[in-house]
Design brief:
It is a single chain. By secondary structure, the protein is mostly helical. The chain is built from six helices and no strands. It has helices spanning 2-6, 28-34, 38-47, 55-115, 136-169, 181-196.
């Protein structure tokens, strides 16, 4: 525990979503921007005595699992149905990574604020906690480190899911934009053709 109190935060400046950028789109690029890199995760794990995330295994397992699931379902769902299904599944993986990255980035910002006397409004945090007890700034640093591990693991799963989508569908995954006009035209055309069958 003494070692942790002497360690300076190894977090670089927290990466946050640029102002004006929508958070709801949930792209893999946004998740990667928010989550720690492999080098950062190695430094965090070393500084806080954590087991580093096995990102490669998580990514490979996520990809293989989704690819195998797609093979089992493709006959029942059909090409378009499988694409829609996988779009939603991958979107959930990517959305989870974006969410974990946001939590991590916010935790890093708070840990930096409490650990830097010039940024810390709580002046009591300038003084070390009672002997044998962690101070608040240290707890925030440890919390941020744990969230970093979660974010890195979740990002790896999302990367595997996106790779599986490319393998199963044959095109790059893109987040759902909410533009239903094209779908509406198809639905209207199909409805017209079906109604014409009753004439």
């Amino acid at each position: 525990m003494t070692k942790k109190t002497t360690q300076k935060s190894r977090f670089t400046a927290a990466r946050t979503v640029p102002a004006g950028k929508p958070r709801s789109s949930g792209t893999l690029e946004l998740a990667a921007q928010l989550c720690p890199t492999e080098n950062q995760m190695t430094s965090i794990a070393r500084a806080f005595a954590l087991d580093p995330a096995d990102a490669a295994s998580v990514r490979d397992t996520a990809e293989a699992t989704i690819v195998n699931l797609a093979k089992l379902m493709e006959d029942d769902l059909g090409e378009r149905g499988l694409q829609i299904f996988l779009q939603r599944v991958v979107g959930a993986f990517v959305g989870a990574a974006v969410g974990a990255g946001n939590v991590y980035s916010n935790a890093v910002s708070e840990a930096q604020r409490l650990s830097n006397p010039l940024l810390n409004d709580d002046r009591d945090e300038d003084r070390p906690g009672p002997i044998g007890f962690d101070d608040r700034a240290q707890r925030k640093r440890e919390y941020a480190a744990a969230r970093g591990l979660q974010a890195r693991t979740t990002l790896a799963a999302a990367q595997g899911a996106v790779a599986a989508y490319l393998h199963a569908v044959g095109e790059e995954w893109k987040p759902y934009t909410g533009n239903n006009e094209g779908v509406a035209q198809v639905v209207r055309g199909a409805a017209a053709a079906q109604m014409a069958a009753f004439d």
